[in-house]
Amino acid sequence: MTDLLDLVALSLLPPWCGILIAERLRSGESAGAALRALVRHHWRDEPDKLATVHARAAAAICRAEATGITVVTWRDAAYPPALTTIADPPPVLWVRGQVSSLSLPSVAIVGARAGSPYALSVAERLAHDLSTAGLTIVSGLARGVDSAAHRGALAARGVTVAVLGSGVDVMYPKEHAALAREIEADGAVVSELVPGTPPQQQFFPRRNRIISGLSRAVVVIEAGEKSGSLITARSALEQGRDVLAVPGNVLSGRNRGAHALLKDGAKVVECADDILEELGLPQRNVFVCRRDGASGAAPPADPVLACLTPGEPSDLDEISERSGLSTARLLPRLFDLELQGVVARIGGGRFVRVDSSC
Fold first, then answer.
1. The last residue of a domain, from among 97, 129, 164
2. Where in the sequence is the domain holding 335, given as residue range(s)?
3. Residue 201's domain is classified under what CATH number?
4. Phi, psi (degrees; rounded to nearest 5) at 46
């Protein structure tokens, strides 16, 4: 318990202490000794500093115990091995859900909060196909591309991990509370910040190093020139992870950050096979990249396609009601039809059948 208290206290020190903490812990120094040495050296004019961080740490541990949050420390066997390799791994992770999911082979998908329908569609499809291939999807639970990636993984009944810029018991954005609960069933919601910590702007760039640190590769979808996704990509490069990017519309200016990554040598991603190939993993025939613009023919008796009419958009609830399929089963089929070119996704999460006679 003393080691846990000291490790949590270390996590409460300012971010600039991160590398110093890691160096001391890697050298074999105990958490208590590292904490006392740092406090003595950097807060010599604050005699109550040690007692203060210990009190805050104890309160955080009590809050976690009361709310069912799991504490995973640097010393625990369950601490994700991939994260131990970064320069400043968090001394403590706070987890809701399945701790084991943090150690599975993972790919991060990140991008714009105000993502275009194209970006959201690509994020969902890539996450779905990578999940089907056995990879865990890591993202930040933000609006836009992040949440689309989480939903794509869930639609494939895959595992996804959400890394927060707040305590795991403080949901941000609030409307993603239900999505977070779905993620926890087989995946995890995780943060380095103690329970009860509200979201603050300075926390989000810091959490991005965890997103990339947990992952074998980072895929950037629709990132502007000042996008936070570029911070994740930069962290990935510093950590020795692969960086890949999805090309987008060159006229809108929404994807200049991702295009800059491509100019600097990031691999172009058009489908899941591109990512699997980069990682040296087996490619799946169901993820065929259609680079020639050809449209595949859908089975004539496809029940989902039969529910759609050319030129008349339908939302998921309408298609689900007509087809008798649940949303979890419906989304993967819609993705397949979209890949074949016989169904198109438009704004508002609606789908429309493509008239092949045009």
1. 97
2. 305-353
3. 3.40.50.450
4. -125, 85
**Which element (helix H / strand E) includes 146?**
helix 145-155
Q: What is the number of domains present in the chain? A: 3
3-state DSSP call for residue 308?
coil
Alpha-carbon separation of residue 81 from 78, 209, 214 (angstroms): 8, 15, 8
What average pLDDT does this structure show over 286-312?
Answer: 56
d(CA 198, CA 166): 5
Distance between CA atoms of residues 349 and 149, nearest Å: 14
**What is the C-alpha to C-alpha distance for residues 231 and 224, in angstroms, rounded to an integer?**
12
- Lowest-pLDDT range of 23-37, 45-59, 198-212, 236-250: 236-250
Is the entire prediction scored with pTM above 0.85? no
- What pLDDT does 291 receive? 41
CA nearest to 139, candidates 129, 124, 149: 149
The per-residue DSSP string of 206-258 comes to: HHHHHHHHT-SEEEEES--TT-HHHHHHHHHHHTT-EEEEE---TTTSTTHHH
Strand, helix or coil for residue 79: coil
